[in-house]
Amino acid sequence: MEPDEHSRLARALAAASLAKVTENLEKGDGALPILLRDDKFGKEFTRNLLQFSERINSISRKLDDGTGTAGKLINDPAIFDAANHLVVGVDQSAILRWLIKDRQKSGIKKEYKEYKDEVARLSATPATPAVPATDGAPQTPTPFPR
What domain range includes position 59? Predict the structure, then answer.
């Protein structure tokens, strides 16, 4: 293939790709087309994005300044050392290791019982009518584990 022919083919492919992107932006229903077409939504989205950014900045300032538990944990090596000593101490104590494992097992058993009770409760309730999905296929509520 000649260099000029290759360049023309590359430009033609780029133009076709750009045309497809433009068509999707004009006719699509994704986030970008909505942002481009709906001024009210765009302004609200921008306002929410700015608020989110301000909150992230506030959180990162607090972390950097050592404010709060997470900030202290990040910035104060003494807190990390104390937590590390606690973990090492628990690991070296047979009684504490047993107690922690026992409490973990108890918590797992409790969560499993709650899950079984919820499944039984949902199974005992009268069936709800199928709700048509957007694709026309019926859907019924299904219990999910927490």
Answer: 12-75
